Amino acid sequence: MRAAVVNSAQATPVCADFPAPEPQPGRAPLSLVGAGLHHVVRGMATGRHYRGGKAFPLVPGVDAVARAEDGRLVYTGLARSPWGTMAESMVTPFEVDLPAGADPLAVAAGMNPASAGWMPLVAHRKEAGELGTVLVLGATGMSGGLAVRAALALGATQVVAAGRDREALDRLSGLGAVTVPLADPASDAGRAALTTAVAEARPGLVLDFVWGPVAEAAFAALGGIRPHDGETTSYVQIGSLAGTEAALPADLLRSRRIRITGSGMGSVSKAEMIVEFPEMITRFADGTFDAPYTTYPLSRVGEAWAHQGRTRAVVVPG
């Protein structure tokens, strides 16, 4: 079969012949419709991601929209290594039917980034009984923006969206979020803006898609608030686009009830994610979620790998 093939950790994928995936009991092969080229896809293929493979060659891709033998469009993923979803054919452990009205390529582009925020939001609501106020750091990226939309849709009392892209912040403000520009979180002005927003909102849940100096600014902001009796903050680390390390003040841990956890592949089970996929997909059909995309045929997967900008690259047959 034709597939995107990565031959080494440093190599750009090429379109080449690759052995068809091994059959699995009760799982018929699916045909590619579109596979999103997410940050995690690049990270895993190059070995930079903590769940990345070390054996080459491999086919990249963690999820896709595919067509079943009976013609159904399904969302799927989690193919067994060395096979990924950027191939003409795939064998996967689950399928979720797409509802009418869902753009299959938007689903391919957006389900992975949407799940990054959706899973901790659902978990927090289940544990606390409500979402309350949610602070999203890195809200102007695709994952962060979808997390803002998810929090609003799931009933958050208030959503504070902090990020660098002014145009994206304006769009989130139009949806009902309180926005905080973070042009330089390490600067006095950047820290002051975040401190003011945190003091006013008193978030019970923080979703951090960037880490690094942004997280340090958030820790300082949280540490400057005198907590109310019984007030708890849940801080969830999801992405690290601003840096892989952040200094955590000891005083913050001792001065308030705060829990710092992570959410990602390995900390959330596959079964938990699959249960949530149908409701997430309906959000693409009803317009709650939006994931702009740019398509590339398999024959141009190298160009897709280099894609940058506000849209998500989606690899399609061809």
From TrEMBL:
A single MF term (Gene Ontology): oxidoreductase activity
SUPFAM superfamilies hit by this protein: GroES-like (SSF50129), NAD(P)-binding Rossmann-fold domains (SSF51735)
Signal peptide: none
Source superkingdom: Bacteria
InterPro entries associated with the record: GroES-like_sf (IPR011032), NAD(P)-bd_dom_sf (IPR036291), Zn-ADH-like_protein (IPR051397)
PANTHER family attached to this UniProt entry: SHORT-CHAIN DEHYDROGENASE/REDUCTASE (PTHR43677), ZINC-CONTAINING ALCOHOL DEHYDROGENASE (PTHR43677:SF11)
Name of this chain's protein: NADPH:quinone reductase-like Zn-dependent oxidoreductase
Species of the source: Nonomuraea fuscirosea
